[in-house]
Amino acid sequence: MTVHPTTPAAVASRAVADPGVAHRARTRTVQVVDTAGRPLAGAPVTVEQVAHGIAFGCIGFDETERAWRRLTGVQAAPGEDELLDRLDALWFDLFDTATLPFYWGTFEPRQGQVRTAALRAAAEHYVSRGARVKGHPLVWHTVAPRWLEPLPDDEVLRLLRERVRRDAGEFAGLVDTWDAINEVVIMPVFTKDTNAVTRVAKTVGRVGMIQLAFDEARAANPAATLLLNDFDMSADYEHLVEDCLAAGVRIDALGLQSHMHQGAWGRDKTLDVLERFGRFGLPLHFTETTMLSGELMPKHLDDLNDHRVDVWPSTPDGLDRQAEEMVAHYRTLIADARVQAVTYWGLSDHGMWLNAPGGLVFADGTPKPSYDALRDLVRGQWWLAPTTVVTDDAGRVDVTGLPGRYAVEVDGTRTEVLIGEGDTAVVPVTVG
């Protein structure tokens, strides 16, 4: 990305270092004037990027557990806090959006005993340092409370509505993006265990469950961004989206999971998913992305949870493969303007789902090649480092880059500039 007082032709050729996503760059003009409103030509202007508009996310589950330990007085294992500090620094050096765990069964393991304080502390940890926070999920059949199961269906539905209203409302202003409901395609036919949410979904139906989640969350926080999220990328999910839209459900974005334990999707599958789900005209969030740095999971398994191992190490070939496939996948996604968020499902192998080598960082806090490769994109090729230029004869400079927030500083005066779709008005900066 670049800042310049040059011609439009130069803008097009120098806007973004990565040509594959250059078409997503936008330009905003800044005009520097004195206190009398006269343009200042030849004034030195320093511009730097402050934040991406596209959400580059990762889970913040470790910080949630640390907050819970501190609140309950549980001592960390030797060296654990030091490790979490290292991981936290790596998190903020790459990511800007944290997904926090609101699984009902662990958030409220006994009825009325909620972990609101721990989740609030974790959310504030991220927000205080400029990150955005997303909650996952408000409704899901897996990790549902066991204490729900003996209750009759009408009581389960009442409590489910109450849960959504309570948590979406209590965290409004701090957590304003939610997976309102998760994995509904399989929800009514789920057979891995018995749970009250699947039971009521069989009678209420998929669209009815989605309507419940969205209505209650929207009522509690009208400003929230609410996602329908699923791992099923088949036509079944497409048909569910069609049914929801026909029923008048207001979906703010579609959540698409991409756990690649059995191998990377590759460009063709990724483009196919983008096209099939992009046709609805809704923003696309890739909510759960995982790529392995070790041996891949057997292809014949339909449920990733069926693969259980005690030790699952990275391999030299796997480390190289993960880095290469990570870059290719993110480039394909960010090249599509419908993609507004990409969340990686686990910074490190420390506590990784299924014990898989899916982290961008080893369990000891050492970055893998994939971390460096992704950071080179997000905070390198797709990021504007501090750059100083001078204004043209009209006192203007053009700020060009991917959607996001930029800071412009002239003679000690610092002004924030937003770049995005529709942000075209000239930004005045007065000095003197």
UniProtKB/TrEMBL annotation:
UniProt key word Hydrolase: yes
Catalysed reaction equations from the record: Endohydrolysis of (1->4)-beta-D-xylosidic linkages in xylans
EC code: 3.2.1.8
InterPro entries (UniProt xref): GH, GH10, GH10_dom
Keyword set, alphabetical order: Carbohydrate metabolism, Glycosidase, Hydrolase, Polysaccharide degradation, Signal, Xylan degradation
Keyword field contains Hydrolase: yes
Gene3D superfamilies associated with the record: Glycosidases (3.20.20.80)
Domain GH10: 77-377
Matches recorded under PANTHER family: BETA-XYLANASE (PTHR31490:SF88), GLYCOSYL HYDROLASE (PTHR31490)
Protein name as annotated: Beta-xylanase
Enzyme class: hydrolase
Organism: Cellulomonas wangsupingiae
Residues annotated as signal peptide: none
A Pfam family: Glyco_hydro_10
Family to which this protein belongs: Belongs to the glycosyl hydrolase 10 (cellulase F) family.
